[in-house]
Structure formats: structure tokens, C-alpha cells
Amino acid sequence: MHLFSDIRAAVIAALDQMVSEGALPEGLDYANVAVEPPRDPLHGDMATNAAMVLAKPAKSKPRDIAETLATKLAADDRIVSADVAGPGFINLRLDPKVWADVTHAVLKEGADYGRSDLGKGVKVNVEYVSANPTGPMHVGHTRGAVFGDALASLLDFAGYDVTREYYINDGGAQVDVLARSAYERYREACGLEPEIREGLYPGDYLIPVGEAIKAKYAESLLDKPEEDWLEDIREFATEQMMEMIRGDLACLGVKMDVFSSEKSLYGTGQIEAALKRLEDLGLIYEGVLDPPKGKLPEDWEEREQTLFRSTDYGDDVDRPVKKSDGSWTYFAPDIAYHWTKIDRGYDLLIDVFGADHGGYVKRMKAAVAALSNRRVTLDIKLIQLVKLFKNGEPFKMSKRAGTFVTLRDVVEQAGADVTRFHMLTRKNDAPLDFDFDKVLEQSKDNPVFYVQYAHARVCSVLRKAAEAGWDMSDARLAEVDLSGEWHPSELELVKKIAEWPRLLEIAARANEPHRVAFYLYDLASDLHSLWNRGNDEPALRFLQDGNEAASAAKIALARASAVVISAGLGILGVTPAEEMR
Questions:
Q1: What sequence ranges are listed for the domain Arginyl tRNA synthetase N-terminal (predicted)?
Q2: What is the mean pLDDT of the chain?
Q3: Rounded to whole angstroms, how far apart are CA atoms 563 and 441?
Q4: Side-chain-side CA neighbours of residue 162 (13 Å)
Q5: By three-state DSSP, how is residue 199 classified?
């Protein structure tokens, strides 16, 4: 059941009737006709902007359209009143039976309540994390991993065909640095003093890698020149790092469908094929770029390069794909990688990047638009920085990592569920503070606790009902009589439940899973408010002493709340709490 969608359908049907009667012209576009919660709840249960958005194309006054439309809507059995307000908005009040239907629908549909076919099976590739395989994941990767994973789950819930993908950046110079760093730990494993010179990775995490190299090669590599061992150690160390990264992701509850390798693009003709595609479109040329604005870098020189005409697709400047020495730029394999995604048949690509990649957005979107002839859309979500605090002080770097706080540091301190939820309490492009003390405190100010506590409270009610020998199964609650009068606090809660399908579609369209976290906090707040009112008004308590029928009517609403909370937490990758200790 999607109440807002159902009432919008009634609005569209009424508009169609007005067209057939000649009150509106034919051919009107209803795309911007919305039914949504009113800004002021005192104005009603829902509001529609239909008359406002259709007035201009219909060449009519908004209020004239609104008056006729309101009369037709008022004839709907679900609508008690339809009142025209202001310049032409229509405020709707619904029959109390509608709220009973919403509650019953949640209990019947269970975790599928709110699931939709919005995506219509559109194939989506969500690429996230994609950390360099040179060490353990840090806290910045943590936020990107949580965001990407929650977004993938959200899109899946909304009916998209989703693939989770990790792009292994194993084709650049950083993996040579990894190999040299691992070799020094290998020398250490052989009893020699490692030379962790400037530019190498100093973290202790490479000590086990050095020991693994010794286990495989014994001391046979000690006296060999770098060219003899670099390639083997690079491959071996990269795989060791990827095993570590997979373990990091697993402890956060993240599992990828696909791991793609940058290295696999080199020497296979895939980079050349992607650029040939652009060349055939007349988008590759030899040219000289204008100097960058502002102060020139010391190493900048005016030189001819192979350029992609990205300005034809909205970029600020054309971008080099090959250096003057004939080697590829970093951009070239990224073009080829996205070409493989297009070739695999995806309709929508979503890349989750760190905030430091903001300058990469326009060129990458231009490349995808050009390669796909604008068929495939690329949405790039930038993840802002996370600041860690403990005891009011910045959380110090990890000795094991050498230079940063690791994902495992965060999860070991706060737990996976708390980490995941809190990472979604801000929009992805807004900075986020992660205070270990605050995310673990048990108060309303801690959204993780507040939402979990709401679910746990409902579970405690169900346990007490079971102890009384009452059947409070979802099947029984889905049939319970809810025709009694609704208290304003109960109405507030059920109205929030009714918003869940609408909220999901809005969040999925915008690729914004943080909206789910915000909604869950509001829903939990409404549930806690009703619970607390019951302390002063016994008639509002979920458990009515000795009265199973009355209790069932109250518990049905509470259980419906818990079903939605559980589904929402599932999208965020958080386990619902059944009790709080």
C-alpha cells in the first residue's frame, strides 16, 4: 500500500474527468502534480499542488481549477474534506478508516511494505570504496563504504537491478611503492633491519605480508636486484592487501558483487578501444591546453598532448588522455573502465568518490555521456571528511596503519551497527563528526540509540503480551478491529508510517540514503512520544491490563512502527535491537 500514490491517482483521475468534461484542455502534463504532507499538520492530512502547476498550461486561474477539483475529490470515500487554500492549494482530510487500512497493510506486507517498482528493473552499477590496495581502509573509506552499501540497498528496495562494485586501483605507481615497502618487511622477516625510507608505507600492517613472502620464497630474494622481484612481490602484496580490505569490509557488513582491476585494462587493448570510440566520434585531438588559472605550478609547461574534447559534454576544459611522453594519464584507464560498465549493459552508473575527487566529476560525466551517446547517466556522490573525537579530543592516528585511523579501529570502538547508522546521519556531501562517547551514549541526542530503543520497546511489549498468553502475531494483528477513535498522538504515528513508501521513492530518486536515517529518527520520536503519553494516560498504553482485545488494537500500531523501523534499518545495514542492555 502506498497511500500518497493512491491519493495522487485519485487526483489524476479527477483531473482526467475534468478534461473529459471540458473544464481542462487535453494534453496536460501531470508530471509535476504532487500529493504530499502539508507544511502545517493543522491544515489536513495531505495537500496537492495540482491546480497551481496546471493553471498556466491550462490558461486558467488556479483557484478556479482548485474549486472544481476539490469538489470531485470530496466525493471519494477516503476523503472527508477537500479545502482550497491560498492561491490554489487543496488540503485533504482523510477518513479514519484509511489509517486503519495503513496499519493493516504494514502488518500484512511486513518487510515488503514500501517496496516499489520505481526502478522498473533498470540496471544500476554502484561503485564505492575502491581504495588503493596499499593498506587497511581508513575512516574516510568507512563513510564511503557505508554510504555506497546503503544506497545500493535503497535502490534494490525501490526496484532497481543493482550491482555493487569495487574498482581495484592496482595499475599505478602506488602498487610499486607497496611492493618495495613489503620487500623491506620481508627483509625484516629474514632477520635484517628494514629500510623504511621516505615515500614507503611505514605501517605495521605490512609485517605479516613480509612474513608471508618469506614463507613463500624463503631467503631467495634477498640478494636479487629489484627488477627480478618487483613484479612478483607487487602481485603478491596486492592480493594480500585485498584480502585485508575484504576483511575490513566484512567486519562492517559490506559485501561486493564484483571486484574489477585497473591493471587488467593495461596491455589488453581496452584502453585503446575506449579511446578509439571517442576518436571515431571526433572527440580526440592533438592540442595544447591553456595554462591553469591562478599561480602556475612550477612544473607546468606548454606542450602538445592528446586531448579528449570533454567541453562538448559540459566540462570546463578539455582533458589530456595521453602525456607528451606517450604514456597514459590517470584519466585514460578510468575512461576505459567506465566503457566496460557501459558495455556490460548498465543503464545508470553511480560512483562514490572522496571529496578530494571533486575536480574529477565533470570530466568523468563527460566521458560517460560521450561513450554512451548520452544513453547512460553517471551520478557521482562525493563523500566529505569524517572528524573523529574521543573524550572531547581528536582521536589519534593508528600505529598499525602508520598515518591514519583505520576502519577496524572505528568498528572495534563503536561496533558495526552504530558506525553504519551514524555515518548516515549527515548528507554525504556534508562534513561529519564522529564522537565515540556520543555515539555510544543512551539518550535522545544519539539517533542510533533512539531508533534502536524504539524497536526494542515494541519487542518488550510483544514479549509481555506473550507472557500473558495473548496471540499478538502479525497475522492476528492484521485483522484486529481498529475502528475506534484515534488519539492525536496515535494519528501522528500512523501518518508517519504512511509516509514510508513515499520517503523511500524520494530517497531513491535522489540517491540519498541519509533520508532513511532521518525518517527513522522522526518515526522513533513519534513512537516514544506516544509511549511517554501512556505513562500519564493509561488509555494510551500498548498493554491494557487484562484486556486482550483492547491491547491488540494498541499493539497493532506499535508493531507496524517496528516493522517499518526494522525495514529501514535493514536498508542501512543495521540490525534491529530486540532489547537494550
A1: 5-94
A2: 95
A3: 25
A4: 23
A5: coil
Strand 258-261 vs strand 46-48: parallel, antiparallel, or unpaired? unpaired
| Biggest distance spanned by C-alpha atoms of the chain | 92
The three cell numbers locating residue 349: 552508473
- Alpha-carbon distance of 388 to 67, in angstroms, equals 56
* Per-residue H/E/C for 257-307: CEEEECHHHCCCCHHHHHHHHHHHCCCEEEEECCCCCCCCCCCCCCCEEEE
Question: How big is the chain by its Cα radius of gyration, in Å?
Answer: 29
Residue ranges of the alpha helices (H) in 468-547?
Answer: 474-477, 488-498, 500-510, 514-536
Q: What is residue 492's predicted lDDT score, i.e. its pLDDT? A: 96
pLDDT at 298 over 70: no
pLDDT reading at 147 higher than 90 = yes
Average pLDDT, integer, range 344-355: 97
**What is the DSSP secondary-structure string of 402-460?**
SSS-BHHHHHHHH-HHHHHHHHTSS-TTS-EEEEHHHHHS-STT-HHHHHHHHHHHHHH
How confident is the model over 352-392, as pLDDT tens digits? Answer: 999 999 999 999 999 999 999 999 999 999 999 999 998 88
Q: Is 329 exposed, middle or buried (0-12, 13-18, 19+ CB in 10 A)?
A: middle
Contact between 146 and 424 (Cβ < 8 Å): yes
Residue 293 pLDDT class (50, 70, 90 cuts) = confident
Cell numbers 500484512: residue: 108
For cell 483492547, name the residue.
Answer: 550
* 182 touches 209 (CB < 8 A): yes
